[in-house]
Amino acid sequence: MLERIPYTGQLPASFFELPRRLYADQPFAPAEDAAAVRQLFEQEAAQHEIIIYTDHQNLRLVGLFPLAGEAAYFGFWETTDDAALNAEAFAVLAADADWLGKTSIVGPLHFNTFQRYRLRLDPAPSWQQFDREPVNPAYYPRLLASLGFTPKLHFESRRLQAVDVPLAYQQKQPALEELTRIPFDFIALTPATWPLLADELYQLVHEVFSQNPAYKAVPRAQFDALYNPAFAARLCPHSSVLFRDQASGRLAALSLCQPNYHGLNLPPDVAPVFERDYPRLPRKTLLVKTVGVHPDFRQRGLQDLLAAYAMRSFQQYYEEAIFCLMRADNYSLRFTKDLPVETAHYALFERLARLARV
Predict the structure, then answer these.
(1) Spatial distance between the Cα atoms of 259 and 179, rounded to a whole number of angstroms
(2) Which SUPFAM superfamilies match (predicted)?
(3) pTM given for the model
(4) 3-state class of 48 per DSSP?
């Protein structure tokens, strides 16, 4: 029986049990830290009406209704392939959205784009999963389509295989040469440098990504919970970098890269550390995770130059690369447009809160 549970500071006991059962026989599983999720709900409760819909066995769904704005969101959705149960749950969520004055429903999105969001579409890629990649059973997009949802935004991840790396170097040689004479200082991102740059990084990330669709600013405490020296410890110190403009002293661009640690099957409570875990990797794959240029420094080719910075040491440390979760209309896709790549697709979905009656 489906329950509608307004959030009042506690999550039902079944909240974290259903995903564990659901992904037990899958070759992938989303990372979910129960303590971090509880903290996130507590942090966001003041800005949202939050309602949980669940039968405690086969479906978990959360309606996120911001106090301001016309969009409602759904998140933390995990389910068996049960069309009727999902139709019931989303109908109740849509009625709540309509009652609260929301005109559309967008998801899956866990409060904001700093957290987990999007669905992975079929077919599943050969790599199975990388760190923080959206993963889900293949029937999820089909269920959403049956409920009137359509893709709102499309994203791609592109894998450059080892055999094609020489071609990339051939094509990007001009950027590698230009890198030696640009008027920017390079700051490697490590656990030691991260605290010294934390204030500037928080502001830079906001200014780089604030114009992206679905972006919502997060409080500094939430940012620091995700991005901190422990996060920096997982980054590749040879390819992760900040560009600082020599003339103004301002941070102009960032590139956050890390190895794909998924093959190590680390316990959920053990965070990866480059120095400890890189040597143990069965396959050396670089994940190009977050790349961006401040609006004031765009149109100067810095996207290609960030990639060139990573290429200086790439062949010493890695066999292949995955360019992760780029928006399908984003300029960053240009780097791989003429290279042979394997592509995975993802989407963020949307529908009207009140569907037209036929």
Answers:
(1) 23
(2) Acyl-CoA N-acyltransferases (Nat)
(3) 0.94
(4) strand
